[in-house]
Amino acid sequence: MKKKKIGDWIIIIFFFLLMLVCLLPIWNIAVVSLSSTQAIINREVSFIPIGLNLDAYRYIWADKSFVQSLGFTAVLTVFCTVLSLVMTILCAYPLAQRHLEGKKGINIFIVLTMYFSAGAIPNYLLMQSLNLLDTVWVLIVPNCLSVFNMIILKSFFSGIPESLKESAKLDGAGDFTILRHIYLPLSKSILATLALFYAVGRWNGFTDIAMYITKPSYYTIQYKLYQILNSLTSVDSHVEGMATTAVTGESMKAATVMFATIPILIVYPWIQKYFTAGVTVGAVKE
Amino acid sequence: MKKKLSRNLGLYIMLILPILFFIVFRYVPMSNIVVAFKDYNLILGTWKSPWAGFKYFKQAFGDNSFWNALKNTFVLNGLDLVIGFPVPIILAILLNELVSVRYKRIVQTVLYMPHFLSWIIISGIAFQIFAPSTGLLNQFITSFGGKPIPFLTDAAHWVGTYVGLGLWQSMGWNTIIYLAAITSIDPTLYEAAEIDGAGRFAKMRNITLPSISPTIITMLIMNLGRILSTEFDRPWSLRNTRLQDVADVLSTYVYRLGIRDNRIALATAVGLFQSVVCVIFLVIANQVAKKFGEDGIW
Amino acid sequence: MKKRTKKWLALTMTGTMLLTMFSGCSSSTQAGADTTGKNSITVEVFDRGTPGGSDPTNNFYTKWIQEKCLADIGLEVNFVSVPRTEEIPRLNNLMAAGKAPDIAFTYSIPTFFNFYKNGALADLTPYLENAPDLVDFLGKDVLDRGEVEGKQMAIPAKRVLKGKFSTYIRKDWLDALNLSLPTTTQEYYEALVAIKEQNPAGVSNVIPLTLTSDVAWRAGPLLQSFVKADITEEELYVNGVNESYMLMPGYKEGVRFLNKMYNEGLIDPEFSLYNDDNKSDDSVARGQTASLMHNWDWPYRSAPGIYNNLVQNVSEAELVPIDPFDDSNGTHRKSAYDPSGIRIIVPSTSKNPEGAVQYLNWLAKYENRYFLQTGVEGETFEMVDGLPVLKEGVTGDKAMNSLNNIDYVTILNGFDLGDEDKNIQYAVNAYPNASELAEEAYHISMNDAFYFPGINTPIESEAPVGSTLKEKEKALLANAIMAAVKDFDKVWDDGLQDWLNSGAEEARKERQQIWDSLNK
């Protein structure tokens, strides 16, 4: 009994230190976003804001496009996550069944798409011929099914005992029913996980916007952040040879980072409760 | 035969949408891989551009920078795998040991935070901490009379910093999948083990690890298949003019040639080469897993 | 279960509604609208993503252009935005799709030549006959830069101010050491040594000279002064592989000089880690650095700018421009900008190349470009001493996303009042706290300025290895500077040989051939 207690404490302290390592740099960004540019240049800022300055946040809040982008990104993310989950389930369930004819071929067909990609121009031409350019659907459909996530779900499904399925079949249930009434309820934690992966992927992703979108109202919040952080390289600004772009201050950059990251951090703990959904009765590993 | 088909009919119906998706959004544009074998002309397009055979492959293979980038990609990704793969598993198992649910949730949330930072930001912070003379860490060391450590300026140290930062950013996030697997373990197994007098480590070894091993194997196979991955942001943000011998990877090489110098066919050729090598690794890893009796990816 | 289905259905419907609501928030002009029968063109415009800016395709200026262009020459204009940071891939995509705007542009010469070789550009020679304003305004020098094999394949922008480099130093520190402003390289060196040894302001870790990993730029004036002053056009062109000076006679000694300075602690020890200018700029702004070299107006750019930040931090600081580096003739030679700027191109798939050139001609007219570059008096600019001065911090519909709206007035890089002195005055008025210093800096940048020969023949062997050579050059310069003094020659010679072997030697030979064929 005593041994356990010490072990518990060691683990607690270990994680506390790990948390510090993860948290401190982010704390630094938050602090920088609240400090004056002068203090930042003078390297005075470490863990407390110096020259407390809310200008960056005021600026972002006043710039309607940031708030609008935040709203758009949030709705888009929810939409995409739901669609992606549906597609992933529809794909993973059949491939998890041992008796499916042609399963191996289909698996290879799908997995190969993870490794062979077409390149920027052919994808662009495809979106163009499908009339998807500058529409909201180009951000939803082309990446709605991740092979990686599908494989994870497929592995999980194949771990669910056949016996459950067999007994349902004897009762006359079809595949859709089995999926809905047996597999899905057992997969809450994994589905929540995949939902999180899809949501974060969509929230953080911006390369498709960079390629296919020109309407500013479709810019996700991370894309706006990318534009601000990615000031021109030295080579480019030398070539332009004049003061064409206003360089964004460090404080502003930090504030945009916080603005783009905080929403997810707020939402996450709320989703967490699904992860601790325990095991339902009867699912014993054979 | 008819019985099999009708048995699987529902399953095939489910697969219609996904397969359609892959055909339209993956395979149709993929035919453009042939650009790797052509003198690509923007105006003529993929099909009308003249054939160039293996010209661009020869160009790439004849370029020292290509081999350098290839070597570095293997080394850096290999280190990422060896060091970065076990850590999330260990963390997940340890997290599972935490008794207080509240503390566990707080730890998880904090550990996930680095994942949300872009590499531009992380490299800025890394510089503040690791710079040779103005970095916080080295200033700390020199104030105690020690010699500054060249985290960012010496080749071997740079590699360590690169891998370490990657670990910092992803270790928390990568525990998610393992934690999800752990929550699916039947608690009665643990109770039974306790009754038999099993200690903490015995439980980990005999219950937790075996139960999540399918997940581990799956993740390992997929990661091996990413051995020549095209992660761009990290090597680009941490790049160092003087350390290109160790810091230049295939993704930055392709960026310079493909985008800056606009050599589309060459970039496609290198990309194709990467894909082929990745698939080879994937197949080998899958076969090995199956030999050990585990479920492969197909 | 039915309840759950209802819930999902409701969610989906709400989701779709919200999505359409958010996406319908703003409207922008249709890209590539082909209004049949009408004389219309589409024009590319950069989206710089600056916070507080206006919508590049739909703001006060675009509306003004559309109205007036239609009224003046019956041309309908629509705008297509391209993010500045994705300039090249986007243009590639548009070209490949046959949807490139009638007026496109790029700063990247390799991209321009790539398009040319692919046959993606329209020959504009016939249309120039009907564009007298444009031809007059740009002049032969500039237009020649856009010619390839006798045909006008691009309309280059005219650069108003060609001055490039100036050097700066902390005069207050020199005063404290009883030193006058250096006028020779030797005096400059001695000044920096004195600053390092005596540290008049007591700054911790004082940096006499700041550099970044882009040494060729950040030490440009110094290095170029070591190149032999009597260098011929031919030597400049043939040796200038990939715009590098490394093969120019004398340059090596310049790098050796920097190596000596580095080993004496006169250069920021962390310079090779700076992939951009930020950290170097900060070191000046916080009062740690004595001297820097950059664009003549670099310290004053982007409000507040290095200069203003410095003065705020250290009230007695005096950062003044100097021109110390003397070459073998006693002059202060330094390179200046090519008279041309961005390359404006018309795709070969364009349905209205004549309209495109007419648009540029319309832009060249003084009243049109003047208005676009200044805006509305009282709202976007004020008249001060007979010259317009742009107001700072304008947001909303009238915000200029690029200085003087050069993103719209693409034929001009800068602001042109038709008179050189007025142009300089105008430019320095943009820096009210330091306009006299800025003016001095500009004159320094043009003092003994020389230009790179403007030969516009594509160099086949150079384009494919451009980035590789640039990276190797940066690494070589950094390594050579940081090497021990006794190792310098070996590091330089080995590195240069590697650079040559990576394609530079081939490019040099080709340049010689081109020169010979043009100068038979």
Give a structural overview.
- By secondary structure, chain A is mainly alpha-helical.
- Chain A has 2 domains: 24-53, no CATH class; 64-272, MetI-like (MetI-like fold), CATH 1.10.3720.
- Helices cover 67% and strands 0% of the residues of chain A.
- In chain A, helix 1 runs antiparallel to helix 14 (250-272), helix 3 (55-62) packs across helix 14 and helix 7 runs antiparallel to helix 10 (188-204).
- The longest helix of chain A is centred in the first third of the chain and has 32 residues, at 2-33.
- The relative contact order of chain A is 0.12.
- The two termini of chain B are 23 Å apart.
- Helices cover 71% and strands 0% of the residues of chain B.
- Chain B is flat, with a radius of gyration of 24 Å.
- In chain B, 41% of the residues are buried.
- Chain B has one domain: MetI-like fold, CATH 1.10.3720.10.
- The mean pLDDT of chain B is 87.
- The longest helix of chain B has 29 residues, at 2-30.
- Chain C has 520 residues and is of the alpha/beta class.
- Chain C folds into 2 domains: 40-161 and 339-416, Periplasmic binding protein-like II (D-Maltodextrin-Binding Protein, domain 2, 3-Layer(aba) Sandwich), CATH 3.40.190; 165-335 and 433-518, Periplasmic binding protein-like II (D-Maltodextrin-Binding Protein, domain 2, 3-Layer(aba) Sandwich).
- Chain C is 44% helix and 13% strand.
- In chain C, strand 13 and strand 14 form a beta hairpin.
- In chain C, helix 6 (132-144) crosses helix 15 (353-364) and helix 17 (420-429) crosses helix 18 (435-446).
- The N and C termini of chain C lie far apart (88 Å).
- The model of chain C is unreliable at 21-35 (pLDDT under 50).
- Classes of the chains: A mainly alpha (286), B mainly alpha (298), C alpha/beta (520).
